[in-house]
Specification:
- Strand 44 and strand 45 form a beta hairpin.
- This protein is mainly beta.
- The protein contains ten helices and 53 strands.
């Protein structure tokens, strides 16, 4: 036994035995098409153990390569005596492998062949395999993607089944210079068939880091399992913004199928997009669903993706609410789908797209499916009137558009078209808006920066010029001719807002994309409609932030008559024509206002315009002082005419107001029935165009126009009590002398239900006073109103000729009045008459009973003094009489 032991010990140290084992290893079928080099460093037959050092193996076709610091193979004699099998334990230390993958996985085939090699007649089988500090690198040739993983593992064969536990130390996925995943670590348990058949199973619980995520929490969790031919996995980010669940993979006779659903912020993948597209990625959430089938016919993928917001980063302007697209990839590598671009209550584009992987280019064609409204109900693009076409590649974009916009209240059509070309470094825009031609150039690197923008007419006259004034493009100057703005106004507004002027904006753009500058209107003469005033000059500061906040400071506006100032105004812009928030305080100084011919005045005061939500109408509040003015018509109909004006924006009819109006000096009121001086203290509330008034109007002096003679106002107040806006309470006293009577009229009650009390001296009945006021005769009767109105209409007919060329024919009759007269006695019928006012003291009346053949009655009245009258009368029967009337005052 001793000799046998010495012989065995000598044999395990002999180089020939070591070389024999090395040759046997190199002759394995797994190395038939490979090179292998290794050293047998130690052999122990007493405690069966073979140690191999510095092993290198490489495929002759350079498809794979692996090496290990050392490999140890061991088994147990006791286990052999009990099982009659040599169950080998393999420990591989610091193994490093790499492989190139295209259509197949050659390294996997090599490893599988190593484990299944059974050429030896000995009953050898794998019992355990242990990897210590090992790594694997895989390069996918078609996509240039590199996969790397480092791990420790322990696999054990039990009843012909290989059960393994892997501890991932690190891992990554890279493409070119972009790292998609790094710091992959975790634990995986799996069961694989080795000798006996069994279903595959696997459970994984791991973490990984996605470095291109623009967040502090870049760590994600990967969990899942595989059972038989199907696996379910889930990826979630630490803060929950990325969720990919479920991710299902299945294998059957038709191939490998995957189904993935998930969502993630679009900005997280911004670093993966070409620079051109990064400029238009915002705080968007991307939701996707895809299904992929891999078989012998190739790779087929289909699904949908929805991106909820796309626009300029950190800007609320020009954002698209949602972009939804279906996609499908066929086995030839051609992608196609239907795209839907939607902006709520504004835009809806639908079309088809296609992308060819081999040619690395794509096509897009879409048009609007719903009316597109630009501005506050100003221009409308009818369905299928906007067309966009584009060709896309990795860095290049070429696009064109055509659009026909129709003014909502007329048939005028504005035609626009243009092109866009980008090579990934610059962006070129060319096109026309109506008769105007524009072109612009932008730089895309290192960031989106305007190089120049110009707009000219067909003859080349420049109307807009925007250019950088610094080398880095951070300082800009924009000069806009008002004629261009005027040309884009809808037809009615274009007629109203005529004028000229140059609008200049100069400023700097800071690192946050905020424009700080000045605003100036020079050489201005812009008509402000309805108020007959002109805008001549504007100066102030302007700030425009990328999130759509527009701030104006220290704005001074000079009008032809008056001026306005604004210390600070803030607007939250949804786009150029819609604001979601407004706060604009304005101070007014002697601003001239004239609406038609009815209202003329000069105002001072302060007004604040506010809007807190796009769902709420604007709100105006403040105080105005009417310094001087003339009003020739005040009625509900006047305000209704303003409200029905179709040229006003629709939002103005919904605006609310709460303001105080007072007068600094009495204003003139001259209407068909009233001439007076007035002061007021009113509160205006409610709808801007149908306000509710509260307060008082005091009338000073003046007169109330009546058919015969006016009454002079001695005292008058109108009290407005809401909600009866146009039904004020009245307190009016008016007086005058008509013929020899002193008439006084008191009016109380409301305008809709007035209480009128009439007095006279000498005393007359109310019926006689009314007759005197209306017809100029105290003898007239109001029993039958129809005949009286008939006589008045005849008089109006004759008086209407004063505005025609026959005025001179009627000049002798200027002091003659036709007087209606109705008596209570119905048998006498209707009396008519002519009254002649020769001067203030001499009057004559000729009356005739129209139902009899009697002669006319003639009465001549001469006022000698205020207390003495002489009257001559010739009655219907031809009798002549005279009277002397004397009055004594006590």
């Amino acid at each position: 036994m001793l000799g046998l032991g010495i012989t065995i010990y000598w044999a395990q140290q002999h180089p020939a035995i070591q070389q024999l084992i090395k040759n046997r290893l190199c002759s394995l079928p797994a190395f038939e098409h490979a090179y292998i080099d290794c050293n047998v460093e130690k052999i122990n037959f007493f405690f069966p153990r073979i140690e191999l050092g510095t092993i290198n193996a490489a495929c002759k076709h350079n498809d794979w390569h692996w090496q290990a610091e050392n490999i140890t193979l061991t088994f147990s004699w006791l286990d052999f005596l009990l099982t009659k099998k040599i169950r080998v334990t393999i420990v591989i230390n610091q193994a490093q492998a790499c492989c190139a993958v295209d259509q197949d996985f050659p390294l996997l085939a090599h490893i599988k062949k190593l484990l299944e090699d059974q050429q030896s007649s000995l009953p050898i089988e794998l019992y355990e395999i242990i990897f210590i500090h090992s790594s694997l690198a895989i390069h996918q040739v078609s996509t240039n993607i590199d996969y790397a993983v480092a791990w420790d593992s322990h696999s054990k064969q039990m009843q012909g089944i290989l059960k393994s536990t892997l501890h991932f130390i690190d891992g990554s996925i890279k493409q070119d210079s972009t790292t998609y995943i790094e710091h992959f670590n975790g634990t995986m348990h799996c069961t694989l068939p080795y000798i006996a058949p069994c279903p595959y199973s696997m459970d994984i619980n791991s973490t990984l880091t996605i470095p291109w995520l623009e967040t502090d929490n870049k760590e994600c969790f990967l969990t899942g399992n595989w059972r038989a031919n199907e696996g379910n996995f889930k990826i979630t980010q630490l803060d929950g913004l990325i969720v990919i669940d479920p991710c299902t993979i299945s294998v059957d006779n038709s191939g490998i199928k995957t189904s993935v659903q998930g969502s993630l912020p679009l900005r997280y993948v911004a670093q993966l997009a070409p620079q051109l597209y990064q400029n238009f990625i915002t705080e968007s959430q991307c939701t996707f669903r895809l299904a992929t089938t891999i078989n012998t016919q190739g790779v087929h993928t289909q699904g949908t993706v929805t991106i909820n917001t796309i626009g300029i980063p950190q800007s609320s302007l020009y954002k698209i609410d949602a972009l939804t697209s279906s996609f499908e990839r066929n086995s030839q590598g051609i992608w196609s789908g239907i795209v839907d671009i939607h902006k709520k209550n504004f835009l809806s584009l639908q079309g088809n797209w296609e992308f060819n992987e081999a040619a690395n280019n794509g096509l897009l064609a879409c048009s609007n499916t719903m009316p597109l409204t630009i501005g506050h109900d100003a221009w409308t693009v009818q369905p299928d009137a906007l067309h966009v076409k584009a060709t896309l590649s990795h860095q290049n974009v070429e696009a064109s558009y055509t659009c026909a916009a129709q003014y909502a209240k007329h048939e005028d059509v504005l035609q626009t078209s243009g092109t866009l070309i980008s090579d990934g470094h610059t962006l070129q825009l060319d096109g026309n808006v109506g008769a105007y031609v524009y072109n612009a150039t932008c730089l895309l690197k290192p960031w989106l920066m305007l190089n120049n923008f110009t707009c000219t007419d067909q003859e080349g006259a420049e109307y807009i010029c925007i250019k950088p004034t610094s080398q880095n493009g951070a300082a800009l100057q924009a000069v806009i001719d008002y004629q261009f703005i005027h040309a884009l106004l809808p037809p009615p507004l274009c007629d109203l807002f005529a004028g000229k002027g140059n609008l200049t904006i100069e400023g700097d753009i800071d690192d946050n994309g905020t424009l700080h500058g000045t605003l100036c209107l020079s050489k201005g003469d812009i008509v402000l409609p309805y108020i007959y005033n002109t805008l001549q000059d504007i100066k102030g500061s302007i700030t425009i932030e990328r999130n759509g906040i527009l701030t104006l400071r220290d704005v001074h506006i000079i009008l032809a008559k008056g001026e306005m100032n604004c210390s600070k105004a803030v607007f939250y812009l949804q786009d150029l024509s819609h604001a979601t928030f407004i706060h604009c305080p304005v101070t007014i100084k002697k601003c001239f206002v004239r609406y038609q011919k009815e209202i003329i005045g000069s105002f001072s005061g302060s007004i604040v315009v506010e809007q807190h939500s796009p769902l709420e109408p604007p709100f105006l509040w403040g105080a105005l002082v009417l310094e001087r003015g003339t009003i020739t018509a005040v009625s509900e109909q006047l305000l209704n005419s303003i409200a029905s004006n179709r040229t006003f924006p629709s939002w103005s009819t919904q605006a609310k107001i709460h303001a105080c109006i007072t007068t600094k000096h009495p204003i003139k009121i001259k209407t068909g029935t009233l001439e007076s001086q007035a002061t007021c203290s009113l509160s205006v509330q409610g709808n801007l165009l149908k306000p509710a008034l509260t307060g008082t109007i005091d009338l000073h002096e003046g007169s109330i126009q009546l058919p015969y003679k006016p009454l002079s106002i001695s005292h008058a107040k109108l009290h407005f009590v809401s909600p009866d806006t146009y039904d004020p309470l009245l307190d009016i006293t008016a007086k005058n002398s008509i013929k020899r009577y002193a008439i006084t009229m008191h009016i109380t009650g409301s305008a809709s239900n007035p209480h009128i009390m009439l007095e006279s001296s000498p005393s007359l009945s109310e019926e006689q006073i009314c007759s005197l006021l209306l017809a100029g005769s105290e003898h007239a009767s109001l029993t039958v109103a129809a005949q009286t109105l008939l006589m008045q209409n005849i008089q109006q007919l004759l008086s209407s000729v004063k505005n025609n060329p026959f005025d001179r024919l009627f000049q002798p009759f200027k002091n003659i009045k036709i007087v209606p007269s109705l008596h209570d006695d119905k048998s006498t019928g209707m009396h008519g008459g002519i009254e002649i006012d020769i001067n203030d003291r001499l009057h004559a009346i000729i009356q005739k009973n129209l139902n009899t053949a009697d002669d006319p009655k003639v009465e001549v009245d001469y006022v000698v003094t205020d207390d003495i009258n002489i009257r001559g009368i010739k009655d219907e029967h031809g009798d002549v009489a005279g009277e002397i009337e004397m009055r004594w005052r006590f």
